[in-house]
Amino acid sequence: MSEAYERSLVVEGSSAYERVSAAVVGVSFVAFLAAIGTFFGWVPLAENVAGFVAARYFGAVLVALGFAVAGLGVASRVGMFETAPDDSAGLVAAVVFGMLWFLTLGFVAQAVGIGAVGWIGALAAGVGLAYATLVSSEDIGSTFPVAGFLLFMGALFVAGAVTPESAWMSEAFEATFPGTVVIPTATIMGALLGGWTGAKAYAGYGTRGRQNGAFLLISLVVFLVLSILVLLLAFVFERGVAVVLENLIIGAGTALAFVALPVVLLSRRAYRRGIVTGTGTDAVSSYVRFAFLAVFVLLAAGLGYAFATATSLSYGSVTLEPTTAVGALPALVVSGVLLLVARAADTSTAETDREQLVARLARLVVAGLVAGALVELFVAEIGVPGVPFMPIAVAAVAAVSLVALVASYARDVPYPRVLPVTVLLWASVVAAVHVLATGDAVAVAGVGIVEGGTVNWPFLMNPSQGLGIQIGVMPAMFGTIWIVLGAVVFAVPLAVGAAVYLTEYAEDSLFTRGVDVATNGLWSTPSIVFGLFGLAFIVPRFGDSPSILASQLVLGFMLLPLVLITSREAMKSVPDEYRDASAALGVSKWRTIRSVVVPAAMPGVITGVILGVGRIAGETAPLLLVLNGPNFPGSAPGVLSSFDVGFGLQPPFIHVSNPALLERASALPYQLYAVITAGVGAEESFGWGTALVLLGVVLSFFAVSVASRRYFRRKLQQ
Amino acid sequence: MTETTTETEEQSTGTSVGSGDTDTRTTKGESEERTRDEWREYSFSEDAILSVDDLNVYYGDDHALKDISMDIPEKSVTALIGPSGCGKSTFLRCLNRMNDRIKSARVEGTVEYNGEDVYQDGTNLVELRKRIGMVFQAPNPFPKSIRDNIAYGPRKHGDINRGFVASLLGRDDKEEEDELVEESLRKAALWDEVNDRLDDNALGLSGGQQQRLCIARCLAVNPEVILMDEPASALDPVATSKIEDLIEELAKEYTVVVVTHNMQQAARISDQTAVFLTGGELVEYDETDKIFENPESQRVEDYVTGKFG
Amino acid sequence: MFETLRNPRSAIREAVSRLRVLAEETDRLTLVLVVAQAFFAGGAFVSLLATRSSLATSFFFLFLVSSGVSWVLRQAVTAKILTFMMTATVLATLGLIVVFLVIEAIPVFRHTGLELFLPFDGANWSTSAGEFSLVAMIWGTVLTTLVAVVVAAPFGIAGALFISEIAPEWLKSFVKPSVEILAGIPSIVYGFIGFTILNPYVGDLFSVSPGSLFLIGLVIGLMALPTVVSVAEDALSSVPGSMKNGSLAVGATDWQTMKSVTVPASFSGISAAVLLGVGRAMGETMAATVMISHTRQLPEPTVYNVFDSTETLTTLIASSYGHVTPGELFWSALFAAGVFLLVIVTGLGIVSQIIEQRMKRKLGGKE
Predict the structure, then answer these.
(1) Are residues B135 and B241 located together in one domain of the fold?
(2) Per the structure, how many domains does chain B have?
(3) Residues 6+ apart with CB under 8 A from A714
(4) Do A684 and A566 share a domain, yes or no?
């Protein structure tokens, strides 16, 4: 029965044929990269290389590829190797080759000056070639037109008929096309075609050949696009990093605190799951994680060296001071994050009476400390003059918990292990708050927490003061923070509430359809239109001038559909079983929503909010219209300090006003626009620095939201 | 067909004698200790179109199929039965390498089709799947017309040329296509129901019709073996009985391997039955009558009599 | 929905009767609270529309108080009312945008007539001569969008195919999130690079003036690319796997399966992605604003010359603000440009969403 089939089940691919095809693909790829490299100046084109103009080498490569491709076709046709070509090279190949030859011959005719007649001839030739491709066997039809193009172009470059110095004026475009564009472009085309054909030949033509060719082309295109985008990021980083980091001074203690964070997180993971886990990609990513851990440990060791020898390390204009004190704000952030981690890691429960007593005691102590810190923050320092109470209490608590920690390990008591760590971290949080509130350092012999001064980051902490004197983005950064904060406060409750209504209460009606359309419409409305809306509606009603408040509202309106869409999806994906289970227990609808639906949907909502914030934080166009502040403001908007609460007889009796919110201001993206309009030149580096900070802010929002979505999704799957 | 049956009967009788006293049922432990050679002996080696040897499949760390060896005879219906999760569908998908689609799957051992290992390097999957067709659990017609569905395979393989290019080159195979569509639909017992609406969208057919359309689509590429993965499980009883009749009809011309968890169905339609039990083992493989009336293994008897599974 | 559309009178009658039933069934306190909230919210909205800010604040304050009281007394009902009002805000927002843009755009339309949008003779832009035709800007938008789509559509579809069908699992898990992150690069950053690096480079290379429409289209296309990839990938992966298996099982290759089953089945979704990309490209403002020359004339020597520079609708708005005062015809012309953008781009967005939802429903996959 199997004799009834034309082709054999197992293809004994000829290794020689495959090797030549693979070589064609490989050389094409290299030529492709090199041609792109000439645009960036990485690969020479007009220069002399070993006695010849580099362009001739491109020609030589094309000629070689042309011969190889033609050879592949002939070898298959005469039956030297076993291949499985179709009867026809197919419509796609025919159209591509026809167009290719039509354009090539047309441009050549144009260049030699026979214009319109030449184009007509080229059209005839193109159509003829397309037909020939269609009717000839696939191995010939898909190789010869490509080989012809490669040989023709290659010969032009080798012979020097087209050199980097050649140029063609186009009257229709009022533009000049120089050889430095034509040669790489033709090489890219040739390389793509050669690679395509080589990939087809590799699989012996036929359906598998076409698949190979198509996949190669698609992968190459994706590779190209992704590398352009990555290159773009790298370029901004390269240009901006020196500006941003200029004159950065950081204390070793603070740096150590920041390095400690990843070290703790990574080593905890490595300790719990083993250094190398899983197979394939999981294994690779665990290696990467381990490498990161090693880097951070090395960094920490370097910092330790700085302590021990008391030398400042500097790299470029970045300096690492050997001060051992940790800034209060960094200490607060790091111990806060570690607290969250410790809470997530705490799986032990107090079982015996004694353990419960210990736990209750610890909770009491922490509560006392926190209460003390709050009193200091809002009322006054606790203690008699000369003897501050809080630092002593903190030190005592820290000492006790350290002893408890060591003891629990030494005596191998499993229970309170996480507990002392938690208490210790709370103590350091409280100490940091104490330092912030009173301004006095909590330190012994220079080791401890100080109010500030351990980090001096001019670019982020200073306003810019005129051209060339000092550059900084502090006012713009605060502008962005206030605007984003206001937009979130305005839009997120609205969006989440609307999502609750749409998923839980609403039945399918004209109203919900209308809301659907409106949401999608708002989502795709251009940002500049939002700006115009702000100008027409919001500005006249709120202070009659561009302001922070107007920007907050406009960006809030933009955030609305983003958060609404993601929140709705998150709520829709909460399984109905949850709702049914809750309803079956006799819980009312609203209580079900509040205690089942919203918590279950929270991760999705938060992810959506972060993503939306990332989008509006980089938004510029509406700010041009409704923020429109000075180009380089000298100070940050004092939103916190200018809240004004008054009571009066007129309704609504309590009058809250905040003049700072009604003023114009700047924001990071707006600042970048200001740099451009102010005229580049001396300030260009300022622009790159601002762009880098902006990218950092926006992309970290996106990265966090993508990561959190993956995390929650994985958690759901478990 | 009858010849084959006689031969296999002799073969299986031999097997029973070879494996000792038929009255003493092998217990669980003994059946697991059976060596590979004994399995081969146990199988229907004569006229085997598919011969599986020592097949192991892993999904990541999960060992889904363990040391499967069996021969599948030509032009007959072989049923694979077992509780869900026993690996019978996995086994079926190994035969035409549809498991390649699952990224984490790893296959060890050999599957010989007409004496050629389908897992060797250089196997042309296009050719393999042309010869070993497959019908899935749920009907999966393409959102195209009935005609386009049937002619899909032949067109992709270049056996039938249609469309703009073909007519330009004067190679339009309209008549061949009409013949093929009619023949395939007739073989799948669907022609009488749809011959007046070949250009309607296939998604408009009923579930049972869709499934027979999928069978017709599979027949149109002229396979030797048809693999069916619980082809009737998504259908109502009337449609199911039509599919069952069709399978028996097809076995005159094709080799059919059908996965089912419906034991009555296996008993009705199959010539030989392989019983997979939880953990991915092939516990017993013999003529269907023998499996259902007088199985060797206690576990198989428990399963087919409904005591377990 | 369509039934209610066809028969509005009976729908209204039904709604009224439903309201009456509701009013009879609920207790008096709830009713009072609900009515108070609705009244205060409506009052705040109306006085805001009438530019009576202090009145609006008072109403809003009263609304807050009444909601607070009602939250304490009747939480469930209040929650429903509040979330309903929040939902209504979404509808109101789009309505307000449309109404206010159109109101501001009316004067220039009265002044210029159809020449505002249509290329009649003398359809020029000249503020000194009082001519405010948007034809040159519309044409600039068309040209840049065309170039952008030529970049974004094929590359975007190729990227979507790569992610959903071709890439192995490990590469997919890396490429997909990076595409999403790349979608977040702010347009002003593209603009800055375009302004400082690309404009001079391309100007040098082709001896053309900076800000050629071709280059701007290229940059905008690159920016729209991640959106097209994401949406098209969504569409492709909503094609059920069983359909692809059916094709593979008759011996078709992966590529044939993509060409003949996956792409045709998700064709409407893919076209929705491209439409959305068109919308993104048309509405893109900042990158174009900082790169373009703002000449406000049709390109020369032919109108198709993509190496020349002109103005687009968005760049007109972004660059002119600051030179105009409210009430002028120029000001009104900016809003006319906004209305044009709103109608086309928002319309494209809505249409593409509807297409996509239809497709998903038809395939019976997720959604």
Answers:
(1) yes
(2) 2
(3) none
(4) yes
Q: Which residues of B touch A10 (CB under 8 A)?
A: 116, 120, 122-124
Query: Hey, what amino acid is at A7?
Result: R
Q: Tokens 């959305």, residue? A: C276
| C142 in Cβ contact with C117 (< 8 Å) | no
Does residue A349 sit in the same domain as residue A368?
Answer: yes
* B250, B190: one domain: no
Contact C242 B140 (CB under 8 A): yes
Q: How far is the alpha carbon of A305 from chain C, nearest alpha carbon, in Å?
A: 37
Query: What value of ipTM does the predicted structure carry?
Result: 0.89
pLDDT of residue A316: 76
Examine the fold and report which residue of A458, A483, A507 is the final residue of a domain before the chain moves on: A458
DSSP summary character for residue C209:
-
User: Please, what sign has the CA dihedral across residues B143, B147, B150, B152?
Assistant: negative
Interchain contact, A86 vs B130, CB within 8 Å: no
Provide the chain A residues 64-123 that lie in CB contact (below 8 A) with chain B.
Answer: 86-88, 90-91, 94
Q: Is C90 in CB contact (< 8 Å) with chain A?
A: yes
Q: Is C170 on the interface with B (CB under 8 A)?
A: no
Residues A709 and A565 in one domain: yes
Does residue A340 sit within a domain?
yes
> Would you say residue B37 has pLDDT above 60?
no
Give chains near A: 3+ CB pairs under 8 A. B, C
Last residue of some domain: A170, A198, A231? A231
Domain extent at residue B230:
2-117+128-141+222-304
CATH number at residue B262: 3.40.50.300
- Give the pLDDT band (50/70/90) at residue A64: very high
Q: Express each pLDDT in C229-284 by its tens digit.
A: 988 998 898 888 888 899 998 888 889 999 889 998 888 888 888 988 998 899 98
For residue A629, the domain's CATH number is 1.10.3720.10
Domain covering C125-363 assigned CATH 1.10.3720.10 in the classification: yes
Whether B215 is in a domain gets the answer no
Instruction: Identify all chain B residues contacting A1, using CB atoms and an 8 Å cutoff.
Output: 224
Mean pLDDT, residues C327-356: 88
CA of B21 vs chain A CAs: smallest distance (Å) = 39
User: Chain B closest CA to A23's CA: distance in Å?
Assistant: 20
Please indicate, yes or no, whether residues B179 and B100 belong to a single structural domain of this protein. Answer: no
Whether A421 shows a pLDDT value over 70: the answer reads: yes
Residues in C 161-220 with any Cβ partner in A closer than 8 A: 161-162, 166, 169-170, 173, 175, 177-193, 195-197, 205-208, 212
Beta-carbon contacts of residue A261 (< 8 Å; ≥ 6 apart):
A334, A337, A338
Burial group, residue B33, by CB count within 10 angstroms (0-12, 13-18, 19+)? exposed
Please indicate, yes or no, whether residues B31 and B136 belong to a single structural domain of this protein: yes
B214–C contact, CB cutoff 8 A: yes
Number of domains in chain A: 3
Contacts of C258 in chain B (CB under 8 A): none
Residue contact C243–B142, C-beta within 8 A: yes
What's chain A's average pLDDT? 83
Chains contacting C with at least 3 CB pairs below 8 Å?
A: A, B
Q: Is residue C193 classed exposed, middle or buried when 0-12, 13-18 and 19+ CB atoms within 10 A define those classes?
A: buried
Is A95 within a domain? no
Domain residue limits at A168: 11-89+136-231
Tens of pLDDT, residues A318-361: 887 777 778 888 888 888 888 887 777 666 666 777 778 888 88
- DSSP labels, C69-95: HHHHH-HHHHHHHHHHHHHHHHHHHHH
B261 and B183 share a domain? no
CA-wise closest residue to A208 among B34, B37, B129, C167: B129
Statement to judge: residues A373 and A445 lie in one domain: yes
Would you tell me how many other CB atoms lie within 10 Å of the CB of residue A460? 16
Which residues does chain C have within 8 Å of residue A533's beta carbon, measured at their own beta carbons?
Answer: 96-97, 100-101
Q: Does A5 touch chain B (CB under 8 A)?
A: yes
